[in-house]
Specification:
Shape: elongated
Number of helices: 7
Radius of gyration: 18 Å
Order of helices and strands: HHHHHHH
Largest sheet: none
Number of strands: 0
Helix content: over 70%
Distance between the termini: 20 Å
Structural class: mainly alpha
């Protein structure tokens, strides 16, 4: 496959993987489409057979990111958020920065310890620990949206395999 065709295919597949999450966000008004889904869609589209795209790793990695992010937000950040930028050198800013740093460290260590490595989950943990999606309900929504992307990916891959088998 030419580089141009591969780039076009990967771009289309990445976008298609996010259609369900985007539709859910639009229909419900809930944040079902969030920044770390983009890198997940890219990895699934670009390297569908890579170890980090195994459903267990994708969903597990993001779940770890959510859990670490929620813990660090609750224990360190307080009730701040980077959505409202804290003043320079403020305690609120320091707490948010510390929560972000801690959550990435916890997420990385936990993913490695459990063999659930999925790099985009480090973006998820920052989204949560920095106060952007920092409630338990929002954390569940993140995992549900990731699971939806994985489901779309698996259905599409199965359909492609079936179509190849049925070609003369």
């Amino acid at each position: 496959m030419s580089q141009t065709r591969l780039a076009l295919r990967t771009g289309v597949v990445s976008a298609a993987l996010l259609v369900v999450a985007g539709g859910a966000a639009w229909l419900t008004g809930l944040p079902a489409l969030f920044p770390s889904l983009g890198p997940t869609a890219y990895v699934l589209a670009d390297r569908p057979d890579a170890p980090e795209t195994h459903p267990r790793r994708v969903i597990g990695g993001h779940a770890i990111g959510v859990a670490a992010g929620l813990a660090c937000y609750a224990l360190v950040a307080g009730d701040g958020s980077v959505a409202t930028v804290p003043p320079p050198e403020s305690l609120a800013g320091l707490r948010l920065a510390a929560a972000g740093v801690c959550s990435v460290g916890l997420t990385t260590g936990a993913m490695l310890a459990t063999d659930l490595q999925h790099a985009p989950a480090c973006a998820t943990t920052l989204i949560v620990s920095l106060g952007l999606l920092s409630t338990a309900a929002e954390g569940l929504l993140v995992v549900a949206a990731v699971s939806g992307v994985v489901a779309v990916h698996r259905v599409a891959r199965a359909a492609m395999v079936t179509a190849r088998r049925n070609q003369p």
